[in-house]
Amino acid sequence: MFHRPLARHRLFFAIRPPLPLARQITAAASWFETDRDKLRPEHLHVTIDILDDQDRVSTALERNLKAIGDAVEAAPFMLRFDTVVGSDRSIALRPHGENDSFAALYQRIAVAREAAGLRARDGYRSSPHMTLGYRDGAPFTQGIAPIGWTVDAFVLVHSHVGRNRHDVIGRWVLSGDDDRQLPLF
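RESULT FIELD:
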């Protein structure tokens, strides 16, 4: 008798580039041999925080994660990638240096998640990058002309693992003040 495998569900907070920019990024990703290896523009994202995969997603878990998003306040910030890194299994855009605003957003989400009694994915360490696709190949690092945008929102994504489906189940606008910026007057 054949058994259908359990569907896996992945929940994560992320930043998504504006769709026109995501389309430009995927079109410029010429280092792939076939289009099937590239992520679709609407799936490009920068993971902020992620939970372990779930067999099912309860209403209570969704409610708790949305409450975390509701609790986070942060100012819009610039996110810029200037390096392409290829590992033996993927290719991703990465920044050359640290982004303090991204780190602060991650910290705010992580603190709220921990206060809600939820754990991050086992072994997860926040490191801003945007995976462009998957491949087999030799590792490499290459500088590129900077690609960036002003991050003005973050989202909660429900990924149906292996089904090429991402549902945005929460979205929050960044509208707080950045207390690290100096006043002009």
